[in-house]
Design brief:
This protein is an alpha+beta fold and 698 residues long. The protein has a 6-stranded antiparallel beta sheet. The protein has a 5-stranded antiparallel beta sheet with strand order 2-1-5-4-3. A 5-stranded antiparallel beta sheet has the order 7-6-10-9-8, sandwiched between helices. A hairpin with a 2-residue loop joins strand 15 and strand 16.
């Protein structure tokens, strides 16, 4: 043998190779016995020991008929032996033999004549225990039937992952004849599946011997190339009786219906989660833009890659009108994207642009019905985008599916909720329409409420500002500055006010007040109190008397109460008289000294009734300042009022600024960004130049 040739015992040497024990022949325990022409045993295989019970030294040289056959059957055996030896025809069949243990066993025989090179004739008998043979035959037949008739796909692959057996069901699943599988690898057959993962699982089962059960894969085969299917695949290693690995078997079960049901259940859970999320997140404020942004952020990425909210200008202006047939003017309120994409940028670039009647968003608001384009083409994108440039951007971004649903509240269409898919390869379907409609319905009501609220708030704020003084008068001996900031957009305007009223003999009244409550009613009540305060100021009453009269008026104003400080200043005496009706104490900032809270009798708020008020006097010398403010400047939800008043005093220790700058600076520094209350601020500073006393004209 050539030294470079593989030894015969190795596989691949011309197909030859040694077989390890445990093969089919070993399983059958086939025995070989050779008789000479006289019927004497001249050859006895080791397997014959087990079949017949005799060792070779006990059998060789003895007549087979006498040793192995019962007496009553010897004539038949001798006759059959003679026929084989004379005619050369083989004989096959089952025959009872006498085992060494004395029992009779049925043995399957194959007998044939042999001739050696000298012309001598012999008889060869191949024998196997009949019960063992029948069991193997039954197992083989059963295995074949189980494989061929199984309602699941079954395949056997060798250790190189080449198909060696494919049953009819797997043939049907793969859409390829069984013969075309044989000798080929899975990657040659399963071209539309994740075959790398499948082959990796097979190799793992071969290597470890640990079965891999219920491995799911989704894809398409030639049997149904237009639709996805789901399969449950199991892999397990096959070994022969001696433990030699002969390959890997896999079973394939089509679980598409179960997979579809699980997918639908998962989609339903995700939709319920999204609806619950929208219920919690959409409409948390009464701001239109914020509500729209909450909606689009709920929609991505689970429902869409890009989401937008566009509201009709007529809806924002609360001008309800019947649907038209022409162009519509939209205001884009919010855009959100699951990832950075030029499609979102294109939507954000459009502002207050008219959309023609042929645009899909316009059709959506005109009909009040969803518009679904599952698969968008170039013409569809031109009707979705506002311009050819935007349509080109959508194409570049890979937009392939579009959905728009109307935003409706109180049977009025407010705008549209637009959705785009690009990276998400699934087209929008009817289930997506139902979900988008549900989200839009919740958001539509929230946007409508926010719009109505903002309108009412705007009206209240307008009324509030109109009832406050315009340009402040220039009182004798005082410089004054004021500042008013309404509540945050998420809350209603309150009833804070201030006033500067010139009095007789160069005196000036300084007023700060806060009507408890908010909205238009609070603003209107504030206007009535401010008017009444001006009227009582003309009577030259002491501050406590003015508050007493205001208290009577407030008691008749339908459960409204108010806090107020009323002070008068005489520039000739630099004397200030002041009374408090439940308001926070003013701050006196003497020139060159530390600021301090004025100690006043607190009094009860206006409208309580029956509680006396007290007037306190103090000096306000040139350069001194008095700071009057409402509670919105200092009160917060998280700090004690004494702590906040100390913060106000520390802030006023800073180097002095002009009065107007001081007002804005105090609001910027002290007002809590989360506070939902108005702020009114009035600062007065005594001056040096005071003219001679003269009576105020009446």
């Amino acid at each position: 043998m050539d030294a470079h040739e593989p030894p015969p015992e190795r596989e691949g040497y011309g197909g030859a190779g040694a077989s390890p024990p445990g093969g089919l022949l070993d399983l059958l325990n086939v025995a070989a016995v050779v008789l000479d022409a006289g019927g004497r045993i001249v050859f006895w295989s080791p397997q014959a020991d087990e079949v017949f019970g005799y060792a070779a030294e006990e059998a060789l040289g003895r007549y087979a008929a006498r040793l192995l056959v019962h007496e009553e059957q010897r004539d038949l055996v001798i006759r059959l032996f003679a026929e084989v030896m004379e005619t050369g025809e083989s004989w096959a069949g089952a025959f009872p033999i006498r085992h060494k243990d004395g029992k009779t066993r049925l043995v399957e025989f194959r007998n044939m004549r042999l001739v050696d090179d000298l012309g001598d004739i012999y008889a060869l008998g191949i024998a196997a225990d009949r019960s063992t043979l029948q069991r193997v035959e039954t197992d083989l037949a059963l295995s074949q039937r189980l494989v061929s008739q199984a309602p699941i796909g079954i395949a056997l692959l060798d250790t190189d992952l080449r198909y060696v057996l494919v049953n009819p069901e797997l043939e049907r699943i793969n859409g390829i004849p069984a013969a075309d599988h044989l000798g080929r690898h899975p990657h040659d057959i399963l071209t539309a599946l994740d075959v790398d993962s499948i082959e990796s699982a097979m190799r793992k089962a071969l290597l470890t011997g640990i079965p891999l059960i219920d491995q799911h894969t989704v894809g398409r085969t030639r049997a149904d190339p237009d639709h996805d299917h789901a399969w449950s695949v199991s892999h397990y290693r096959l070994e022969d009786a001696s433990g030699r690995v002969i390959g890997v078997a896999n079973s394939v079960i089509d679980v598409s219906e179960r997979h579809q049901a699980a997918t639908e259940a998962d989609r339903a859970r995700r939709r319920l989660t999204m609806i619950a999320d929208a219920s919690a997140r959409v409409g948390t404020t009464l701001e239109v833009e914020h509500t729209a942004q909450e909606l689009v952020e709920v929609a991505v990425p689970d429902l869409a890659d890009v989401a937008s909210v566009d509201v009709l200008e007529t809806a924002l202006a609360l001008r309800r009108s019947a649907p038209s047939e022409g162009p519509e003017l939209f205001r884009p309120l919010a855009v959100a994207a699951a990832y950075a994409t030029p499609a979102a940028v294109a939507l954000q670039a459009v502002d207050h642009a008219p959309h023609g009647a042929d645009r899909l968003i316009t059709q959506c608001v005109h009909t009040g019905r969803p518009v679904l384009v599952s698969h968008t083409g170039p013409e569809d994108l031109e009707r979705i985008a506002l311009s050819a440039e935007s349509a080109a951007v959508f194409t570049q971004a890979g937009v392939h599916s579009y959905l728009a649903v109307p935003l409706i509240a109180r049977d009025e269409v407010l705008g549209a909720f637009g959705l785009l898919r690009a990276r998400n390869q699934l087209p929008f379907d009817e289930d997506d329409v139902l979900l988008a409609v549900e989200l839009a319905a919740r958001a539509g009501v929230a946007i409508d409420n926010a719009g109505l609220y903002q309108s009412v708030r705007s009206t209240a704020e307008t009324l509030q500002r109109s009832l406050l003084p315009g340009e402040l008068p220039q009182p004798t001996g005082l410089n004054v500055a004021s500042y008013y900031q309404p509540a945050q957009a998420s809350s209603e305007v309150g009833g804070d006010w201030y006033d500067v009223i010139p009095l007789a003999r160069d005196k000036t009244a300084l007023v700060i007040g806060d009507v408890m409550g908010n909205g238009i009613d609070a603003a209107a009540t504030m206007g009535r109190l401010r008017t009444a305060t001006s009227a009582f100021a003309d009577l030259d009453l002491a501050p406590a008397e003015v508050l007493r009269h205001l208290d009577k008026i407030t008691c008749g104003l339908e459960h409204y109460i108010a806090t107020c400080i009323y002070a008068t200043y005489d520039p000739h005496t630099h004397r200030c008289h002041i009374a408090n009706a439940g308001h926070l104490p003013p701050v006196l900032v003497p020139s060159g000294r530390l600021p301090e809270l004025l100690e006043l009798a607190p009094g009860a708020p206006l409208g309580v009734g029956g509680v006396p008020f007290h007037t306190t006097a103090f000096d306000l010398n040139p350069g001194d300042r008095i700071v009057l403010y409402t509670d919105g400047l200092v009160e917060t939800r998280h700090h004690h009022i004494d702590e906040r008043l100390n913060t106000l005093l520390r802030t006023l220790k800073e180097p002095r600024r002009p009065l107007d700058d001081t007002c804005r600076w105090l609001v910027d520094v002290l007002r809590d960004t989360d506070d939902h209350d108005d702020v009114a601020l009035l600062i007065a500073q005594a001056t040096l130049d005071v003219p001679e006393r003269h009576p105020r004209s009446t």
